[in-house]
Amino acid sequence: MALHSLDKIKAPIQQHIDRFEGTFRSSMKSSVPLLDTITRYILKRKGKQMRPMFVFLSATLCGEVNESTYRGASLIELLHTATLVHDDVVDDSNLRRGFFSINALWKNKIAVLVGDYLLSRGLLLALEKDEFKLLKIVSSAVREMSEGELLQIEKARRMDIEERVYFDIIRKKTASLIASCCACGAASVGVSDDVVQRMWQFGEQVGIAFQIKDDLFDYEHGNATGKPNGTDIRDQKMTLPLIYLLNNSDFMEKRRIINTVKNHHNESDKVGKLVARVQECGGIAYARERMQHYRQQALDILMTFPDSAARRSLEELVLFTTDRNR
């Protein structure tokens, strides 16, 4: 699917996306000049707006967008942006999406305080308008994201990530955020708890498929991400294609693989050989098959809703997340 088709996907909610930019900007306002400068910089770095798209499309699928929907989208963006700012400090990362990170430009102490400020703005936005249901959904997602990160760190030290644990990590780290977007969109228009839960499950399946696609970029030749093959190995990340190789290797090969990831992850020739081995053993084909499984699960849930422009856009958005080339 071509990237420009995102415009087509946004069509049923374009007016809401346009208005949301203004409401989100005002939700970050501060009387402290330094903070205002930094939040303006954050706003300049916005990406494809996938999270607001999921919120507004889910709301339109289930009812009519209202002020609660805008607050839900803002709440997710504020809390998620706070976690990204903190992540860059934790990872000592100087770049995010090609831009300098907050900690690279203003140092760690200011970055942590900015993250705290964004977190408090999100909490206050929800509390001031009695949006307890939305706050519960998003807070649950932030908790899951933190647990997923810590689980990944714990398991990466021992290089013992089983496939079951890998899926637990990505469900918490990535899928919970997309799930919260879909659940917030549904909850904002006053549907039953059962429908909100169905939308959470839909978002969760999309999120898992999205993360597997992200992990595949590292092993597929000719991808357009600008991300060199083997980056995850260099970062000592155990993702599905590599886990598949480990599960289908004898004892000696397992030892060699783990030794490469632990002790030779900065040696291009050894990393290249390991990437080639993952390709040979069918690790990429297996990961693709699992990605398609979760994508289909998401589409099956979506088909339980009546046909509409919003449902068709969500279908296209699901396909976009797994067919994208960056």
Write up this protein.
The chain is built from 15 helices and two strands. It has 326 residues and is an all-alpha fold. It has a domain at 16-191: Farnesyl Diphosphate Synthase. The longest helix has 27 residues, at 102-128. 41% of the residues are buried. Mean pLDDT is 87; it is low at 222-228.
Layout: helices, strands, pairs:
Layout (H helix, E strand, L loop, with lengths): L4 H6 L3 H14 L5 H12 L5 H13 L4 H24 L4 E2 L2 E2 L1 H27 L3 H27 L4 H26 L4 H25 L13 H4 L5 H8 L3 H13 L4 H13 L2 H20 L6 H15 L3
Antiparallel strand pairs: 1-2
What is the structure about, briefly put?
It is built from 15 helices and 2 strands. With 326 residues, the chain is mainly α. A hairpin with a 2-residue loop joins strand 1 and strand 2 (99-100).
Attribute tags:
single chain, mainly alpha, about 325 residues, globular, Farnesyl Diphosphate Synthase
Structural class: mainly alpha
Determine the number of helices (DSSP H or I, runs of at least 4 residues): 15
Can you give the mean pLDDT?
Answer: 87
Q: Tell me the β content.
A: under 5%
User: Which residues form runs of ≥5 with pLDDT under 50?
Assistant: 222-228
